[in-house]
Design a protein that fits this description.
Layout lengths: L5 H12 L8 H9 L4 E4 L7 H8 L5 E5 L3 H13 L4 E4 L5 H12 L5 E4 L16 E6 L20 H6 L5 E5 L4 H10 L6 E4 L7 E7 L3 H11 L4 E5 L3 H13 L4 E4 L5 H12 L5 E4 L12 E6 L6 H8 L9 E7 L1 H12 L4 H15 L5 H8 L12 H4 L4 E3 L1 H13 L6 H9 L4 H5 L16 H13 L3 E4 L5 E4 L2 H7 L5 E3 L24 H16 L3 H4 L2 H10 L4 H5 L6 H24 L4 H10 L4 H8 L3 H13 L12 H13 L7 H6 L6 H14 L1
Parallel strand pairs: 1-6, 1-7, 2-4, 2-5, 3-4, 5-6, 8-13, 9-11, 9-12, 10-11, 12-13
Antiparallel strand pairs: 14-17, 15-16
Helix pairs in contact: 2-3, 12-13, 16-17, 17-19, 21-23, 21-25, 26-28, 27-28, 28-31, 29-31
The protein binds adenosine-5'-diphosphate (ADP) and zinc ion.
Length: 701
Amino acid sequence: MESIVEKDLLEKLKVNFGYDSFRLEQQTIIENILAKKDTLVIMPTGGGKSICYQLPALFFTGITLVISPLIALMKDQVDSLKANGIPAMFYNSSQSSEDQEKVFNAVADKTIKLLYVAPESLSLLQNILNQSYISCIAIDEAHCISAWGHDFRPSYKQLSFLKKSLPEVPVIALTATADKATQEDILEQLAVPNATKYISSFNRENISLEVRPANERVQQIIRFIQKHPKESGIVYCLSRKATEQLANKLQQNNIDARAYHAGLSFDERAKTQEDFVKDDCQIICATVAFGMGIDKSNVRWVIHYNMPKNIEGYYQEIGRSGRDGLPAKALLFHSYADVIQLRKFIEGTGNKEVQEAKLDRMKQFAEATVCRRKILLSYFGELIEKNCGNCDVCKNPPQFFEGTVIAQKALSAIYRLEGKEAMGTVIDVLRGARNTTILDKNYQELKTYGVGKEVSWKDWQHYIIQLVNQGYCQIAFHLNNALQLTEFSQKVLFKGEKVQLTTPVEIKKEEKRVVTKITKSVTKDGLFERLRALRYRIATEENIAAYLVFNDATLREIEQERPQTDQEFLGISGVGQRKLEVYGGEFMEEIRSFIKEKKKGRKDTTLETFKLYQEGFTIDEIADRRGLKAQTIFSHLSKLYLEGKDISLDKFITPEEINLIANAKKVLKNETALKPYFEFLGEKIPYEQIRIGLTILQKKH
Ligand code: ADP
Ligand code: ZN
């Protein structure tokens, strides 16, 4: 053992895992284990914990026993190891006695390097639990041992016997749970009080953070997904019902989404989860029951349809995206209704104060006007010097301005409405809307009616929420959320107090991919999709998850480098010896035929757009690839559509939106300019969508 040097570690890392360098503290952790010292590893989800015990396993003469809480996860890990040419097995009580026999033989013959087992099944392994067989013990998801942690599992409690019966064997415990109480508890319960601790940064800089007001969430989500076609994602909802409703809505819009919650049968859940992992289902609308035990590296985004109860939960959930280190997105919708709902949940529970405080921190995060990552990391006790540059606040720092007049208008409208109306009606009054609520109640007679015409609906909402946050008015949650004045309002209305507000930020149509050091530039053609299709085919044949063949980061690099010899292929990060031998040929073949076809080339500009469209690219991707504006691509598609080409424009718009536009068209007497529509529709439907809607309506005639 003494003779293992850095070079040996790097060589095994490349040959068996295909990687060129260690991440974070992986190397020091591995060295510690190889020196047979007990080790505690705290790393965020996706940080790369597995290699910390999988790589040392290759150097030990005996096997590494891995205690893992979830059977589904075990199978994935074993598949992944096998794909890399590392012999591994798992053992559990649901296996046939034949299969169990095979495991015992493999251990006795030392033909495997790692054995995964659930804690419940450990007692059945007594006869192999001795030092001549076992060289190392890894406890994955170690927080399950602690009642302080959030996933306590009673069967983890008994694990201290391992150290007692195998005192010479190093124990490595791994978890993504940071808090101190849990850490100490883990060491005590495992009887390894002197374990070396490695606590990595919790910063997951490849995940961009964004919070948006929850107006028309479903539409926003549909648009988001339309801009990220084929990308795996999870939408977290608060209730079972919400998961089903949302999944339905998405399906109606031709989006491949399914619901997942604890109320479904075991088989149904297992199937959904498996399909998701294998890229057979793009999107899961889930309660928080989903995700634990999913080890899918290419989840590209996580949306919180509702606000989570606390920051721990939020961080764990968004951590399920971007495990491969490529850019990923976390989008949170913030609404007052959710806060009310969550408060209600808390009412009936035990430690109410703690939970309320946690919810408040969550709310502060959602309403932040400083770098959101700073807030998150400081919650976990980690301070960062610089703003992250990869959250919505950093990208669009709030601009403050003196908004006293705006505040006065809003507050006096609330006053005139006698604190009886919720935000929607207050805004309608300010904007001088002529709808039934207003007219029925004669609100057009009020003094403040129409004084805020020049401010859009969305902006009013943005300002009023700030007035609530600054304490000038409040939401009476028990009176249908009516807005009411507070004492503070007097200062603004009568005592000349100045009010600072922030300018609303436009939700950018699609921010360009953040270029971090990990991002590989994307080449401008359809090779990636072809490689992805090939990966999917191979994975289906082998009955493993697609990302186990190559993860997205590796696929991107293959796309960019276009390797054509074994040597070049091996140079790709994520390609080890076995993967070169098994998959290299087919992938290089695909690249060669792609290059050949490319040479034939073709011109015509709308047809070029059509071709990319048929290959499944999004508007933004096509625009990007062609160096044109998204607007132009839309006009190409509209033209092709009117010519009768097979373009499903309805993918880009919902049936509700078409109806609204059709209605507007009648009222506006077939107006052709877009602006009148935009205004008529309350500025809620973007210009692009209106153009598409009108094209579709034109074709119908
Ligand atoms: P965790 O268990 O901490 O959530 P994993 O062990 O599943 O994370 O690793 C997350 C991803 O990072 C996997 O796709 C893994 O292959 C990849 N990875 C791990 N270590 C490295 C490395 N040194 N270089 C590149 N990728 C790595
Ligand atoms: Zn930031």
